[in-house]
Design goal:
This protein has helices spanning about 25-30, 35-40, 45-55; strands at about 1-5, 10, 15-20. It has one domain (about 1-55). The termini are far apart. It contains three helices and three strands, in the order E-E-E-H-H-H. Strands 1-2-3 form a three-stranded antiparallel sheet, with no helix packed on it. The protein is α+β, with helices and mostly antiparallel strands and about 60 residues long. The chain is rod-shaped.
């Protein structure tokens, strides 16, 4: 049995193929090996930029 996540198909040993649905967000996570922390780290540059802007605008915070 072969599972092709990109094509969203399962192929049996005798050649039968079946389609299945996967949420696009979940598919992205599975293909890229991402958990919640990994998803957050994908946004590290934007988070760092926000933090720098916040520190510059509100140095007391």
């Amino acid at each position: 049995m072969t599972v092709d996540l990109v094509a969203q198909t399962v192929t049996t040993s005798d050649g039968q193929s079946f389609a299945f649905e996967v949420d696009s967000h979940r598919k992205h996570c599975l293909l890229n090996g991402l958990d919640d922390i990994g998803l957050t780290l994908e946004k590290a540059a934007a988070i760092d930029s926000f933090e720098a802007q916040t520190k510059a605008l509100r140095p007391w915070a």
